Every structure is written in structure tokens, then in C-alpha cells.
Amino acid sequence: MSSQPDVDKNLAEIDRILTKHAIKTDKDEAHLVVLPECCLFFGGRDQQQLQLAELLCDMSPGSMQSALAALATKHQCYLLAGSIPTHSVEPGAESGAKAKRFSASSLLFSPSGELIADYQKLHLFDVNVDDNTKSYQESLYTQPGGKVTCVDIDGITIGLAICYDLRFPELFRAMRQQGAQVICLPSAFTQVTGEAHWQPLLQARAIENQVYMVAAAQQGVHANGRETYGHAMVVDPWGDCRVIDSETQLSGLVSIRYDQQLIKRVRASIPVNDHNRFTLHFN
Ligand SMILES: O=C(O)CNC(=O)[C@H](CS)NC(=O)CCC(=O)C(=O)O
């Protein structure tokens, strides 16, 4: 996607893409659609994201959550909203009207519109991109999450991570150890770092953990001048990539069929999980 600082426009665009690709469930098959980081609001001011932030709530959801649930129901898919701003849910976080920071939450909705998982971005992008012309201070307005998150869909374990998390392989190892077979990585990579690092890092995480990596991306020049890399892709557990054509498509969809046998074969032939001599500690 090439999201704008306009929630309704982005919702309409998601609806358009899903309609165009006619994601329809033939009853035996589940579809998981992964939208990029900041899918409903991107390229505006951080203060606006704070104002948009909603409480995470299944009983009386905010307007972004209701709209996403409605899209999941309309298109009969599991829908992962890469991230939307929510009020912080971490213990000790600022909350309510006084909150100065929001959480970047990935929200997973079921085809019946139920919120079945949420993940708050763990690693925040406080980085001077190497040419030193651009600096990012995500932690100024975002509260980091506090937990590793996996969720079961139709017997398949799905791990959740966001964007800059990609550079922290321990998180992905932890999800593999919790049983992950698919890991979703909604992103908004910078043009500069994306060109250099996006594909090799995705392939590394897929290959070393023998999982599918589903990497949705923001792309193009956004309203505030920010440029994102695009090249959304799905990488299979052997490292083969299916990449969106970013030269011809500003927004669209790339898809793959989940193959349980491929995971089994790759894990049986190279049993890295059994050979691993390190244990993990989460701080
Ligand atoms: O700021 C927002 O509105 C939304 N958040 C983002 O775009 C985030 C934080 S600035 N982007 C990244 O994490 C890029 C990571 C990246 O590019 C890398 O690891 O190289």
C-alpha cells in the first residue's frame, strides 16, 4: 500500500484491493491477508496518530477496529492490520487522556470479525539512516510492547512482528520455538535501508527458522515526503521469494499457498531446532 494520512481513503483502498483479488473462501480454505505497518494512517504528523489511538476492545471497539472487522467479514478472510495506533496496554505505560505515547499494534481479525490477536511492536526505530540526512525517533511517540505473540489459525501457528523487529533474530527464534510456521512482518521500511537490507533479512529469517515470512510493505512517496521501499513479498521456508512488482504497482497483493509438507521436509532435512546450542532470554 501507499497509505495516506486519511483513514477512510485507506479503508476504501483496502476494500478495493480485496474486491479486485476476490478473496473468496471455498469453505475448506482459510485466507490470511496481511496489510502493512500504519495501513490506516501514514505520512501525517505523529500527534495525529496519538489523537487517532483507540483502546483495544472487542466489546465496544473504536471506529478503526470496527471498520477492519467489517472488512474481514465482508471478504471472509483473516485480516491482519499491520499496525494501528492504540492506547498503551503495557503495565506501567501512560494511559488515558494523559498518554503521550501510543502502541503500534498489529490486530488480527477473524472472518467473523472477532479480534483474535494483538501484538505491540517491540523494537522501535530510533535510527539515523546511514547517509545521516534522515533520523527517526519512533520511541518519542510510541510505547514499546512487552510480549512475544503467536496465534493459532486453523491449526497453523502464526507469529507477529513489525518492520524494524526484522533486525532482531532472537524474536524470530523465540516465535519458532513457540511453534510458528508463518511469521507476519507488516512494514514501512525506508527507501535507503530497504534497498540494502529488506530482501536478505527476510530470506535469512525465513531460512534460519524454516518458516514462511509474509512481509507487507508501504511503498512510494508519502504526504509528508517520507519515502518507503515497497517490494512486499512472501518468502517460503526454503528461502524462495514471491515479490510484488513495485515498478508497476503502487498497491496490490502478492500471495502464496501455505504448504505444510514443505515445512516438514525442510525441517526434517536440516534440523536446526535440535542442533541449536543457545537458549534465549527475553528482557
Ligand atoms: O513512523 C511511522 O509513522 C510508522 N513507523 C514506521 O514507519 C517505522 C518506525 S519510523 N519504520 C520502521 O521501523 C522502519 C525500519 C527500517 O526501515 C529498517 O529497519 O531499516
Key descriptive features of the protein:
283 residues; alpha+beta; Nitrilase/N-carbamoyl-D-aminoacid amidohydrolase; six-stranded mixed sheet; 7 helices; 27% helix; binds N-(4-carboxy-4-oxobutanoyl)-L-cysteinylglycine
Write the SSE topology.
Layout: H1 7-20, E1 32-34, H2 46-52, H3 63-74, E2 78-87, E3 102-109, E4 115-120, E5 126-128, E6 135-137, E7 149-153, E8 156-160, H4 169-177, E9 182-184, H5 191-209, E10 212-215, E11 219-221, E12 227-229, E13 233-235, E14 241-243, H6 260-269, H7 272-275
Parallel strand pairs: 1-2, 8-9, 9-10
Antiparallel strand pairs: 2-3, 3-4, 5-6, 7-8, 10-13, 11-12, 13-14
Bound molecules: N-(4-carboxy-4-oxobutanoyl)-L-cysteinylglycine.
Report the total helices. 7
Annotated CATH architecture:
4-Layer Sandwich
Strand count, sense and barrel status of the largest sheet are: 6 strands, mixed
Catalogue the unreliable spans. Answer: none
CATH topology: the name is Nitrilase/N-carbamoyl-D-aminoacid amidohydrolase
* Tally of domains: 1
Bound molecules: N-(4-carboxy-4-oxobutanoyl)-L-cysteinylglycine
What fraction strand? 15-25%
Distance between the termini: 33 Å
**Which sequence of SSEs, written as H and E, runs from N to C?**
HEHHEEEEEEEHEHEEEEEHH
The CATH homology group name: Carbon-nitrogen hydrolase
What structural category do the secondary elements indicate? alpha+beta
| Rg calc | 18 Å
